[in-house]
Amino acid sequence: MRSHRLAIILVFLFLFSSLSAIDFESKITQSLEAPAFAQESDEDFTKGGYHVATGKWWEPVGYTQTVDDWDGDGFENSLDSFPLDSARPQLILPRQSVPCTVDSNQTDCIGDYIGTSYYDSPSWTSSEQEQTQAIAFADVDGDGDLDMGVGNWNSRTKVLENVAGVFGEPLWEGKDLIDCDGMAFGDVDGDGLPELALAIFPTINEITGEYNQDGYSRVLKNLGGTFDFDQYIWIQEINANTEDIEFVDVEGDGDLDLFLGNANNDSRLYLNENGVISNTPHWEYDFSGALQDIEFGDIDGDGDQDISIAKYYGSQEIFLWEDVPEFNTQRIDYTISSAHDYENDTDEEYVISVPGIDGIQLFIENFSTYHRYDRLMIEDLEGNILQTYHGQLGNFTTRWFEESGIIIHFETSETYSDYGFDITGYQTGMKNGMTTPSFAHSPIFSIGTLDSPWEGGENKHSAANAVAWSDYDGDGDLDLSIGYRGYEFYYNQCYYSGFVGIYENINNSFSKTPVWNSKGCNEIMDMAWFDIDKDGDEDLVIGNGEYWNSSIGNYQNHPIQIYRNDDGTITENPVWESSSTYKLSMIKAGDFDGNKVMDIVSGTFSLNELYHFNTNSVVSTTSWMDEEGSVTVRGGWGDVDNDGDLDFVEANFLQPDKLYLNNGTSLQTTSSWQGGTLKRFYSVAPTWGDVDGDGDDDLFVGYHEDQPSELYLWENGSLQTEPIWVTPSKLQVNDAKWGDMDNDGDLDLVVGSLIDNIRMFRNDGDPSNLTEVVLTSNLSWISRISLVDIDSDGDLDISACNQNKADEIFLNHDGVISPYSNYTTTEEEDCWREHWVDLDNNGFPDRIVGHLDIGVKIFYNTAGELSLLESWTSPVQNDTTAIETGDIDGDGWIDIIIGHSDNETFLFRNNNGLIEDLPSWNSSLFTDRNAYYRHLYLEDFDLDGNLDLLAVLSATYNATSEQNDNNGSIILFNGTNEMLFSNHTVIEMHDVTSPYVSITKSNGPSKLTFAICGAYQQDRIYELENLNLTRKEWIVSTLNYGRSYSAEWGDYDNDGDYDLAIIGRLNELSKIYENVNGTLSFLPVWESSGMFNSRYGQFADMDGNGWADLVVFSEGGPTEIHYNHNGTIESTASWNSTERSLTKHGKVADINGDGWYDIIVANRDAPIQIYLNNEGNLTTYSNWNSSLIKWVSHISVGDVDRDGDLDLAAANLLGGGADRIQVYMNNGTGLEYFPSWNSTDTFMGRGVEWGDADGDGDLDLAIVTDSTDKIFLNEGGTLNPIPVWSSEESAMSFGLTWADVNRDGTADMMVFSTNGPNRLYLSTSDKDSDFLSDTIDDFQLDPTQESDKDGDGYGDNTMGRLFDNCDGVPGTSWRDRRGCSDMDGDGQSDLQDAFMNQITQWIDTDGDGLGDNWADNQTTMTRPGDWPGEFVENAYNPDPSPYDFDNDGYMDQMFESLGAIGPFDDCPLSAGYSWKDEVGCKDTDGDGYSDLFDSHKNDWTQSSDPDRDGFGDNSSGNLPDGCPLTWGNSTKDIYGCPDVDGDGWSYLSDYNDTNSLVWSDSDTDGFTDQLGHPKTDDCPGVSGNSSRYLRGCTDMDGDGIPDSLDDDIDGDGISNVLEIQMENDPLNASSVPPDADSDGMPDNLDDDDDNDNFPDDFEIARGSDPFDNLENPINMYGGFATGTYYTPGAWFSTTYSENGYEVSLSGILNLITSEFLIPLLLIPLTTFLVIKKKRRFNEIKTRIDGVMDQTVLIEIEQEIDELIEKKHLNIEQSLLLRNAFVRKEKELAKFSLNQTTSTQKDWSTPLPHQDVNAQMNTYQSQSSSHIQPGYVNSTPYQNSAPSYGQPTPIFHPPQPSVQQPILPVPQANFSTAPPPQKPSMAARPDSVFNGFEWINFNNQLWYREIGSLTSWKMYDESL
Hints:
With about 1900 residues, this protein is mainly beta. The longest helix has about 30 residues, at about 1-35. The chain starts with a helix and ends in a 5-residue tail after the last strand.
C-alpha cells in the first residue's frame, strides 16, 4: 500500500512540473504575441536637419502650389495681390512705426544701415554663355523649391532644377534652337503641376532676311517635372513676334487665362474654360508700337486684374477690366491714300465724323513701312490725342475709339522720307445695351509720346522696356513704375538717358510726372519690386542693358542696382550694386534657399547669375581688441569726424577715457583722443620743498586714489601746470614730507601711504628723475608722517602716525634708514595729527599726538629716548584736526594750539616746560554747522611783534542740493600782547570740504604761498601779502583718471556733429567734451555741479525745444534732467526724481508711443521704474513699477515683436549672483508688469542690448556676463530661451553696444570689459544664419551643415540635412545614399547599384537582371505612373515590367506596397500564362489551368479531378469521370467509380467490390455465389443472414451465428444450456428465466445480484447493500460516486478491479486513519484540464485535416470559436487550429474552382486518355502494386488510375460524419516495410497513435504517417 502511495506522489509531481512548463511557455507565447516596437522618427534628413546654432529642426521654406495658391507662397490667390509671383507678397514683418532701438548716438535703429551689402558675390553662375531673354520660377518637379525656367536666343530654352538653393542640371532642355522672348509658369489644367508658356519670337532667315515661320508661342504640358516641345496643350496659330507671355485669372473664375504680348501683331487674351485655353481671343490690343512688357494688377481695387502695357514706340497704357459695352457694327469703305514720298517735314489731317455713333475703328494699310519716325495720331474732335501709332506698322486695325468722330493727324520728320499710309475703311459701332467683361476700349492712363510734342528733346521717344506694380507708399493701392530705355552716353553726359519712373496712384488716377525717378545713365531692361530689408515695404531692383558710351568709344554695361524704400521714400542713390556688370535682359526675385528672404537672379546676354541674400551673423572670434588695456565700464558709438562711419569711445575706470577712430572698415588699434579734465583728484598731501635748489619752494601733490602723484616746479614766480615728475607707481598717499635724508644737500621726498611701505624718492640732483627706495619692511597705515632728528645725531629720522596700529619711529644713521621700527607705542590708537617740537628745552624734540576721539597727548624726549607713556593729555576729548606750536607769550617756551572737528580751537600755555591743564584761550566761530579746523599757522602778519593765527576751516556738504557749500573759510586771528587773539577777519571763502593745506614763505618776499587741495576738487594756490589773500591762477589739466561709467554721444550744440558726454561715478562730475570740426576738446566744456554716484546718462530732447537735454541716472541719488537752453546745458539739474534707489542703469525711450521720451530707471533690490513724459512735463515720482523686485544691472529697449512699440529687456543679478534674463513686453500703451520671457539658464548678467545678430531684420538679444557673452535669437517675435551663440573668450564683460563698424550693412557687437581687452565681434557674411562666417562654412546656404572634410559636397553633420552617408570617403552618389562611391556616375552608390558599370541603370526592383529605367520616351505617357524608374535615353536592358520577376505579364505581390497591382503572379519565379486557377504559372496544355493544379496537364479537355482517380470531371472531355466526387478506378461499366477489388466493375454493379473474384449473389442474402471468397455462401440457395462460422445460413436471433452453432438460439440473453437447466424453452425468446440484473445469469445462479460489478460478499464486507445496484462501496456517502479505481495499464474506472487501487471516500477515511493524507492533495484538477485540452485539440485538428466538405468545415470553425471564447483551448492551440482551418479552406476553394470551371470549355475534339503516371516519373516511381488484375489486355487502360506523386492537395479518407453511399477504399500501397505498432484498442476514425494516423475502413485498419502526403497503407497483421 505504501508503494502505491509513493507512485501517486511521483505522478502528481510530474504533472505539476509539466503544468509549470506549460505556464512558462504560455507566458513566452503571450510575450511573442505583443512585441514592443520602437517609435519611428518622422525626421526626413533629405528635407531638413538640426540647426547648428539653435539646435532646432530646420527645413527650407517650401512652395506648395495648388489651384488656390498658384505661386505656392502661402497666400491664397484671392488674398494675393500678385498670385503668380512667389516673391510678392512674402512673409514680411509688419512695418515699423517707432524706432526699433533707441541708441545714444540718436540713430533710430542699427537696421537703418542695412542695405549696403544685401548681396555678396554670385552664389551661382550659369555654366555657359547664354542670351537670356526670359526667366520664370515655379516648383516644376513638385519637391517644394523653386526651379528656374530660362528662355534664350540662339541657345536652348531650359528648366533648371533647384538643388539646395542653387541651380543644377536641367529638368528639361529643348532640343531645338528657338528665340524665346518670354515665359511663364502656371497650372492651366488644375493638376497641381505648372505648365510652361513660351513666348516665341520667329527666327530670321539668313538668306532672305525675313522671319521664318517658327514663332508659334505655345503652352507645354508638365510631364511630371519635365516638358516636351511637341507636347503642348495650346499653340498660337500665327507668327506674331511674341515678346511677352503671361498667365492671369482675369475673370476671377479660379483658372488661368493666357495673354500674349506681340511685337508685330495685335496682342491677345485667351480665356481658360475648365482647363482648356480657347483658340479664339477674348480681347485684342491693337498693334501700335513694339510691345515689350505687360503686367497685371488690381489697380482700382475691385478684385479683378487690370493690365499695364509697356511699348518701345508709342504710349505706355493702363486698361481696366470692366463690363465693356457691346457694339452693333457697320463697316464703311472709305479710302484715304497718302502713299507718296515726303521730302519735307509734313503734317496732314483728315476728319471722320459720324454723328450719333458710339465708337469708331479704322482699317489701315502700308503705314510707314520703312521709317519708324513717322507717326499717325488719332485725336478726338477737340484735338485731344487718343492714340499714337509709330511707323513700320504696315497693315493693322486700330482699337475702338468711343467717339462720334475722330481726327487723323499724320506727321513725318524732315530728316527722313517715307511712304505714308492708306486707310481702306472704318467701322462704326452703336451700343446695343449689352456688356461683356473685358478690358476697356480706352486706357485710364497713357503716357509717353502722347504727352510729349515732337520736339520734346530727350523725350522724343517714349521707349519703355518694363512696367511693374507696387504699393510702394503703403497707401493700399498699386502704383505704377515704368522702366525706360536710354540711348547713349555722350561725352560725360547722359544723352537720351533711360530711367525708372514711379507714377503714384491717387484714387485710380495716375500722375503724369513721376514722383521719383532713378538718376544716372540707365538703359532699363527690367525691374522688380520686393521687400529686401524686411521692413514691411517693397524695395526696387533694376537691371540695365548696354548703352553706347561715346567717351570710351564702346558699349558699356551696368551693375544691378537696389534702391531701398523707407516707408514710401525711395533712396536717391542705390544702396547696393552688383560687382559684375551686365547687358541684362531680365531680373527676378525668389526665395531659392528657403530662408524666408528673397534672392535675385539675373538673365543676361552672357552668364546668368544667382545672388543669395547676404544675411550676416555675428562671429564668435574677435576682429579687434584695444591694445592699451583699458578698464572699460561702458562705451558708445558716434561719427566724431563726420566721415560716415562710427567711431568708438571708452568710458574707463581710473583710466583716461579714449576714442578710437574708424577708418571705414575697422577701428584703429590705438586711441586718437584721451579725455582730459581739470585736476580733481583726491589730493591729501600738498608739500612744499625746494627740490631743484633754486631758492623757491616747489610743490608735491600726493593723491589718495589709485593714480600717480605729481611734482610741480615753481618757476618765474608761478607754479607750472605740467608736472616735472610723477611717482612711478599709483600710491594711495596719505602724507608726504621733504627732507635731506641722505645728507647730500638736496631734498628727498618721503611718502606714507595707505597700507604700504614707507617709501623715499631720493633726489640725486635731477628733480625730473627721483629714485624710488622702499625704506621699511612692514606695511603701515599712515595718517601723518614727520621727518625729525629725534636722537639729535644730525640726520632726519622718520615718525609714522598710524591708524589702527601702533605708531612707529624709524631712526636714520648716516643716511641709512632702519627698515624696522626702533620705537613703537604701547597702544594702537587712531593717530590723526602729529607735531614735533622741544617743549622742555632739553635740546630734543618732543612728540605731540592728536587722536580720534581722545584728544591730544604729549610724549617727552629725554636724550633721544621717547617716553612710552604720555606726560600730558588734553582736557578736550575730541577729534584732533590741526596742531600748531609757537612761543605765543614770548616767554621762551613753546605753547600749543589745537584745532578740533567741532568748530573749536584751544590755546594751552607752556609754563616752564609744563603744559597747563586748562586752555588760556579758545574760539568757537560757527555754532550752526560743523566746520573743521583743517590747518593752523602762526605768523606775525601785521609785524606788531605778536604772533597772529591763520586758520583754514572746511566747507560743508549740502545733502539737499547734493553739492558743496561755499562756506569754507580762511580766517586770520590777530595776536595781542595779552597772549590772546583778538577779533578775527575772514579773508577768503571756499567750497573745499576737506582741505589739505601747505604753506611756504620761500616763494616771494613778505608773502605766504598757500597750496590748498581737496577731494575731487581743483587744487588751488593762494598768495597772502599784506593781509590780502589772492588766488593765483593755476589751472592744472590732466588726463581724466576718474571713475567714468558711461560715454554718450549727442549733438548738444546743434552744430551737426556728435559731442561726448562722460558720466562719472563715485563723486565724479559728469562732463561734456565738444566736437569741433571732428576733434573732441581735451578739456570738458561743461561739468555738472553735483558729485553724485552717477551711473549712466543719455542725450534726448525731453522738453521738445529742439535741443538735446542730458538725462543722468545715479546710484543712491535722484535721476536728473539737465535741460539744454539753446546750447547751454544747466549744471544743476532743474528736474530731479523724488525717489532714490540704488539705480544701476537707465534708458530714455518713448514707451507709451506718444512721441515724447520717457525715463526708465533700473534699480537694485527695487522695481524698475518709468517716469512718463507728458508733452515735456514729467512727474517726480514714477508712473509705472514692475511687479518684480530684482537687482537689475542693465536694461535695453527695442521692438522685439515688431508690433510698433518698445519692449524692455533686463539683465538681473540674484543677490549679486546669477539670475535669469527677462523681457517685459509692451502692449501698445505701456509695459506689462510681469516679464513674459525668461532665459532658461541664469547668468551673471552685466549688460544687455538689442541688436540684429543674424541680419534677418528683427532684434535679437545680446548679453555680457562674468564669463562668456551670449546671444538669444529672435524667432518670429519671440526669443529662444537658450543662447544661440557664445563668445570664445571668457572675461569680466561689463557692457556691450551694437554698431555697423565696417559699413557692410549689418550690426557688429562691441563688448567692453573691466579685466580684459575690449572686443569687437564683426558681423560677417553668413547667408544661412548659422553663426559661421561664409569664409569657413562649407555650406553657406544650409544652416544644418558646416563642414565637408572629404569635399564631396555632403555635410559631415549626421543630424544635418543631406548628410554624408560615407563620411571621410569622397563620393558622388546621391540617389540612395549621399557621398558614397559611384563608379558609373549615375547617382546610385556602388553598394546598392544593381548595375555598377551602367550609367543608364541603377535599380532592379524585381531582381530579374533588367533595369527599371526605360529607353522609349513614347511609353512615358502609357507607362503606369507608380512604376519605378525613369526615362533615360538609351537605357541598358530596360525591364518591361519592373514588378514582375519572370516577366510573364503578372506582377508579383511582394511589390504591392510599391504599386504593383493584381492579379498577382502565383508563380513569381517562373514564367507562365495560367489564369483560371493560379495566375502566371506553367500551363502545358494551354487550357488556362496551371500545371500545378491541372489534373491533366497534357489534356486540354480535362483539368479537374478532385477525387484524384485520373478521370476528368468534364463530362464532355476525354474519359469523363462517372463518379466525379469519389475516387474510383472502374473502367468496364463506367469510368472513375470506386472499384475496390480492381476487377473493372464499379461498386454500382459489382456485388462485392472488395474482391475481384466474386461479383454475384443468387439468393440475395448478401453472400456471393462464387467459391473461394471469404463471403462465399455456405448455404447457397437458402437466404440466410449468418455471418459467423457459416455464411448465408439461417440465424434466428440475427447474431451472425447460424442457429446450428448458436448457444443462444432465441437470443434472449440466456444460453440454451441455462434455459434447459431452468426449464425454459431455448428456441422461444419469450420464455426467459428471471434475471434481475440482465447479466445473462439467472438470479438463482448470479454471484452479483445487483450487477453493480461489486461481488455480493465484497459489498457485505464493506457495508453496502448487495441487492441495490445504486449502492456500492464507493458511493455509500451522498448517493453518488465518490471514488474510482486506478488500474495500471487501464487508467481510471469506476468498475471494481482486483488489481486496481481504490480512490474513494471510504478510502480517504482509511487513509486518514493511516495518516496518509498527502496523496489526496497531489492530484489537482488541472491535470485533467490539460489532458482534456490536448485531446480536444488533437481531435479537432484531425477532423480539419480530413474534412472534404465546406459546410462541415464551417461547423468546425464555429466550434473552434466557441471553445476559444470559453477558454477551452490555449492561445497556441487556437492559432494552430486557425492556420489549419485557413489552409483547408483554400484547398477546398481550389477544388471547388476546378469543379466549376471544368464545364466551361467546348470539348469538340476529345483527346485520348493518356497515362498520367508517365509524366510523374520525376516524383514517384512506378510500382507493380499499382497494376490491378482483371484488365483486358486489348484495352488501352492496362494500368490502374494514376498515382499522383507531385505536390497536390492531400487525399483524405471519408469522414465519419459524412454519409456517402459507397465508401471507396484508400489508395493502397502495400509496402514491404514493417508496419507500425497496432493500437491496443480498435482505432476510431481519424485517431492518432504512435506517430501515425489510423482509420477503420470497411472493418480494415489503414494507416499513414502524420502530416504525410503519401498514400494510405493497409495494416497487415502477418507482418
